[in-house]
């Protein structure tokens, strides 16, 4: 068997800005975590990272080595600590299975491995990094007579950046590939970065300054749920947006409100009003690249209480509904970005 790590060419790691710059599997640079120590645990994770390649192996070996082993009260271990493995064209990806530590007595909670059987035809492989763990490395192995190639590129040269709460981070999907941004990535063949931080993304200007410096094609602003109340959201939401806009005058920015509007309409209308004001103020200034998606539309009118695990975090059903609703706005914007990208490359 030929073995590779996530750092070995022609394998590509997507979704981790630090990996692009210095090979780090952490989401945030040290200087940002020093300024915002509440983000250290979450910024050290690899959430949203994807290991991508093409191979014609008949046996695909995948091994995860983590520095941590986190149990989460609301999601299964396969989502908290596991890798999701997909094969085939990304927009029609086939879920092969997950690689995750069981935590059973006598097993090493920081290492897990699995071998998958394939048909030997050349295919795309996409491996999603765990939500909660800080990683040491990821290994893959292929047959000695098999080939490995660089993956097919995503349609967008620069990633879509999502900033927000534990919901943005993927809580509480049954496995990492079911988070709304991961699902959108597959449906649209879209590269993305996940800056969702459970309970800790609160519209800090330091984070806005960092995000504003990141190369991106679209920015999705989704931290409503982490604001303690509507008053705090009002103090931070528009200033955060304006920092992003000042450094990225033509960047499409999508503002989301939290998905549980119908569970507490009175409270959530106040929060939505804050986000709507940021949006309307931008439009009044002549901003033609700002969009608003209201959480009141995410879960529809039926089975609202079947969409979360705790009246806060979506389950897989809730995330699927969110994905479909967000796609209506995101897909045409992404198409426009890709078209402009193609025109630039032709000149």
Structure description:
- The structure is a single chain.
- By secondary structure, the chain is α/β, with parallel strands linked by helices.
- The protein has 2 domains: about 150 residues, Galactose-binding domain-like (Jelly Rolls, Sandwich), CATH 2.60.120; about 190 residues, Rossmann fold (3-Layer(aba) Sandwich), CATH 3.40.50.1110.
- About 30% of the residues lie in helices and about 20% in strands.
- The chain has 10 helices and 15 strands.
- The strands form 3 sheets. Strands 2, 3, 5, 6, 8 and 10 form a 6-stranded antiparallel beta sheet that branches. The protein has a 5-stranded parallel beta sheet with strand order 12-11-13-14-15, with helices on both faces.
- Strand 5 and strand 6 form a beta hairpin.
- Helix 6 crosses helix 10, helix 7 runs parallel beside helix 8 and helix 8 runs parallel beside helix 9.
- The N and C termini lie far apart (about 45 Å).
Describe the structure using short key phrases.
single chain, 347 residues, alpha/beta, Rossmann fold, 2 domains, six-stranded antiparallel sheet, 10 helices, 32% helix, globular
Spatial extent as radius of gyration: 20 Å
Basic shape: globular
Question: DSSP helix count?
Answer: 10
Number of DSSP strands? 15
- Strand % is 15-25%
**What would you say the CATH architecture of the largest domain is?**
3-Layer(aba) Sandwich
Question: H/E order of the elements?
Answer: EEHHHEEHEEEEEEEHHEHEHEHEH
Task: Provide mean pLDDT, rounded.
Answer: 95
Q: What is the structural class?
A: alpha/beta
What distance lies between the first and last C-alpha atoms, to the nearest angstrom?
Answer: 45 Å
CATH class of the largest domain: Alpha Beta
Low-confidence stretches: none
Major beta sheet, specifics? Answer: 6 strands, antiparallel
Helix content: 25-40%
CATH superfamily of the largest domain: SGNH hydrolase
By CATH, the topology of the largest domain is Rossmann fold
What is the total number of structural domains? 2
